[in-house]
Write a structure and sequence with these properties.
This protein is an alpha/beta fold and 414 residues long. The protein has a single domain, classed as TIM Barrel (Alpha-Beta Barrel), CATH 3.20.20. The protein is 32% helix and 13% strand. The protein contains 13 helices and 13 strands. The strands form three sheets. Strands 3-11-10-8-7-6-5-4 form an eight-stranded parallel sheet. Strands 9-13-12 form a three-stranded antiparallel sheet, with no helix packed on it. A two-stranded antiparallel ribbon has the order 1-2. Helix 2 crosses helix 4 and helix 4 runs parallel beside helix 5. The longest helix is centred in the first third of the chain and has 17 residues. The chain is globular, with a radius of gyration of 21 Å. The two termini are 24 Å apart.
Amino acid sequence: MKRVDDFRLKFGTKEYVPIMIGGMGVDISTAELALEAARLGGIGHISDAMVNDVSDRRFDTTFVKDKTKLYKHNILNADKSTIKFDLDILAEATRRHVGATMEAKKGDGMIFVNCMEKLTMNGPRETLQVRMNSALDAGIDGITLSAGLHLGSFGLIADHPRFRDAKLGIIVSSVRALQLFLRKNARLNRLPDFVVVEGPLAGGHLGFGLDWAEYDLATIMAEVIQYVNTEQLNIPVIAAGGIFTGSDAVRFLEMGSGAVQVATRFTVSEECGLPANVKQDYYIASEEDIVVNTISPTGYPMRMLKSSPAIGDGIRPNCESYGYLLDGNGNCAYITAYNRELASHPDGKNIVVMDKTCLCTQMRNFKLWTCGQTTYRLKDTTRRNPDGTYQVLSAEHIFKDYQFSVDDQIALPV
């Protein structure tokens, strides 16, 4: 039986272990996790979600504190349209995060940054442009465009000197989405270097409706691979979502996938940014604990653990500090929901918002436990400690288990 290591992801003349670790924010896919993937010959992601806050954590900058101070007069105001991100600070935070990661890179692999279109930041076009250009300035190997169709995103960096040098890819959940992207970007004469096809079992935001269970990754992959081959596009197609073992990965590699993108098993790695107690919540989760709901202000369904403290929390919107999901007019679905409940509780006490969540604050505080559908299987990948907790594994252990395992086996730690 073949192993993942029998295959290679090819970009031109260079070859890589066909394992890509997905980009999980906020700083769940840490620099340390991405660096391990690159050291081992694969591809790791960092995320630029809430990059100002990530910079404050990594480098002791005060970007969030300074922004809060600047807009503190607006904290009790329901109108958030005046809150803007300083583009120079956004660029500096991005360059710090990406630059320090790239300087530490070792091995033959690559590091990409995951850029979400839905981080609109009360300036969708200009803030996305700054984030991508700054990542390229700082030497990132590639950019993966996520959480949106990104029909104009390539155009935002077309004038950058590394536009045709860096690897640029997009996440889609259907062949139609890929076709639309290619059609809208044809004038740039710049194909994506890779396409990640994310199926319905993936973690976090989904490219499907609440009918997600009616779809399956293998079928979508077959359609995308056939389209790419028919059009002679020579673009690696990367399978993502629900790939739990090396044997799962081999099945997609044998059908023509250039690589696999995996994340769920790395959420409980030593290098992952989740707090230790939250990792244990992932380990003990049952299949019934995993839900897909519509509480995200982005408009996308989102998979998470139903025990997430963020669900039903009525925290005041912290747009003055964060505000990453404010649309171009300063609106957010959570603000609308919060103000509705506030009108029913003018004293501001006992506010519960069930239909939406403050994604920025809750993700920043690790209280929104997004996860993949296979999270309930994590307990089967490790051993239980005498105190009842589960042993946390290194990213290297998990990576090599994907790379070398056969027969759907999972290598337990010694």
